[in-house]
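Translate sequence into structure tokens.
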Amino acid sequence: MKKFKKLICLVLVMSLSLSLLTACGNSGGRRGEKVTLTVYSHLANYNGEMVGWFAQLMLEKFNVEIILISDEDGVYETRMAAGDLGDIVVWGADGEKYIDAFKQGLLWDWDDEDLLVEFGPYINEHMQPALSKNRGISERETGVPTLYGFGHNVASNARDIGSFFYTWCFRWDIYSAIGYPSMKNLKEFADVLEKMRDYEEVDDIGNPIYAVSLWSNWDGTMAMYPKSMATAYYGYDEFHMGLYCPETGEYFPALMEGGPYIEMLEFFNDLHRRGLLDPDSITHTFDTMAPKLENGGTLFSIFSWAGEDRYNTLDHLDEGKIMLSFAPEEAKPINYGLNIYGMNRIWSIGAKTQYPELCMEIINWLCTPEGRMTIDYGPKGVTWDYDEDGKAYFTELGKRTDADRNTEMEEPYSGKFGDGSFQVNNTTWDTMVINPESGEPYDKKFWSSYQPEPRNDAEADWREFTGASSIHEYMTSRPYAVSLGTTYSDGVKSVEFRSTWEQVTKEIRDSSWRAIISDTPGDFWRIIDEMVDNAKAYGYEECVDWSLGEVEIRRALEAQVRADSN
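Result follows.
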């Protein structure tokens, strides 16, 4: 059957130029009958047919339309029961769901009939450690080292660090206007946020400004934002039923008395009681929160992509407003060491696809320099290109789309840049990897062409105050923790234990939000005590014990990386 499918697919791709098959892209487009592919992504925030410039580019290069399916409640179970996950399948983690899928035969073996070698040559040549890690996952689970894909943010050098994304984005124009008050710890940070809110009370469209707006649809084992706040402040990495210190190997279970997670719940409850927390946080999705951020409705974000990347539009910059990184003195945010094995968000191909070669060609192109640049910056020759020295630069249109995602695209593409962006929401190479075509990182902040003058007086003031000329320079000038890249992947839970885990995590998530929006300290601690008691009744301690077993595996793998790096 697979050979028959392959013959069909080869007919469909015969007109694809040789340059594409060698991972250099197909500038002439792909002829033949138009194909519709379903991409099921656990990371997507969008459902339906992809539109805009990326969809138009896929049609131009591969004669493909893409239907994107996000991982909403029940979607995974429904597609697993049907035995068809889609054509391209993107996983949010390389743990249980992914493992269940390949164990049930629902993912395509990339070594079958040399699929990878023939149609993924760039991946095959440049990502062997990441492919080896993926084979290791299947070998551990089935005894057979089968290749089903690779993880995101692959690196080419294990000794490098990534670009920071816990950057403590902060409305610098307001902070400077109130006289740069001390921000040593979380208490002082909350005090400063209150002063900033009192200075500017309404956003661009007249709605109240809050210190921060959270969202709940990304919650997992714990409430996402409080958990991430511990990562941004202490440098502790989320790890199963708690937080892990990558420098010491210490583990802090989620409900540990006096532990970092409970501390961050208390911090956000303090913001709530001061009137500084967006009251819609508990019902927000990221998509419903984002417009508030873009309209200036929040004063800070611990994430770069939910802070400066969205707020610093041309209009805001022209008005003298800006979000820039500035953290409390005691904060020690995490950064992730680049991982030659790739991280845990897996690119794979569904076993029922009629077009495995075409799927592989698309994934392969996304791994080429042009494909990786396109994911972040748009079409080559339209929003970015290389100069006579081979260095990347933004075109005039690209400068506008980089500054404002609502910028309208130009011929041959249409629609707003943001609406047409890469909605699959996964990456191939880490942005700090050197682009072999330019000799500079994929991250625009490190392009020789992207060393701009201050965009307004507020940014000039920030540079003078911090002594840094870029966010990365500021973040590396102060304390930070590094989480090493290893071959670790999540262990598998039994069916019975999964049920226990789900009951415990639901209790933690639900009670965390109740605690955050409680109106008095007494109510807060009463809810915390109830959460601990209920979680223990559901099996919390069993979950912690399982997590500690995974901690031992992670410690050993980190020790191996350190030894290999010496």
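Note: Residues 336 and 483 are 5 Å apart (CA to CA).
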